Structures are given as structure tokens and as C-alpha cells.
Amino acid sequence: MNKKRYAWIAAIALLIICGAYLYNGVLYKEARNIAEEKAAFRLSSVQLVAEYKTNMPASDSNYLNKTIEVRGKVTQVSDSLLTLDSGISCSFSKKMGADIQGKEITLKGRCIGFDELMEEVKLDQCTLID
To answer: Tens of pLDDT along 55-82?
Structure first.
């Protein structure tokens, strides 16, 4: 009878340990902080859009879900979104001022792909660098 009891206690303890490991090590991961990550690529907005229009699969393998630094001219500002050189849509966590319109800026964000309908590259979690 004691052996069965110890076996049950050991099995329950093992399940608790495995559950804690899965929750902390596999299932629960903190969100990425793009502002603190180092950019994997640095390029101009015109270059990024041209690469996506020429070869989307290769561009996706290079840039998709990676932190990239992009330089370009702000062509449109709307609340927390801005557009660089009419080809890159960038979303920020805070509202952007209209005074940035027409200026050359550098920003960092996570590439989430190319919108074929709008023909623009999408970046999210963006932060201004200069």
C-alpha cells in the first residue's frame, strides 16, 4: 500500500513540475520590446519597398518579423500612423504630431509584411530614432 501511495505522490509532483516548466518556459513569453532590440537591417524606405516589389518571398525571408531601421521622408501622418515615401506604413503606440510631415526621419520597427493591395510595407511597434 505504501508503494502505491509514494508512486501517486511522485506522479503528482512530476505533473506539477512539468506544468510549471511548460507555463514559464514555453507558453508564457514576454512580449518583444522592439525599441530596445538591435536592428537586424538598416536601409532606406525606397530600397525596402523596391525589394518587396521585385521579390516578395525573398524579402519576407529577410525582413519578416525582424527589427529593421528605415530612413525616409514622412509623406502622411494620421494619429498613430505615418507613411514614409508613400510606400511604408508605420504604426506607433502613441499619437504622432503633424509637425513631422515632410521631414526626413529614421525609425525602427518590426516588419509585418507587404500589403499587395495597398502596395506598401507594414511596420508595427515603431519608435523614432532621430
So the answer is: 999 999 999 999 999 999 999 998 889 9
Name the residue ranges covered by the structural domains of the chain: 1-30, 41-128
The reported pTM is 0.74
For domain 41-128, the CATH architecture is Beta Barrel (2.40)
Q: Are strands 88-92 and 67-78 parallel, antiparallel or unpaired?
A: unpaired
CA dist 13 and 35 (Å) reads 40
Other residues' Cβ atoms within 10 Å of the Cβ of residue 84: 28
Which residues are CB-neighbours of 83 under 8 A, at least 6 positions away? Answer: 74, 75, 76, 77, 89, 90, 120
Distance CA 3, CA 44 (A): 69
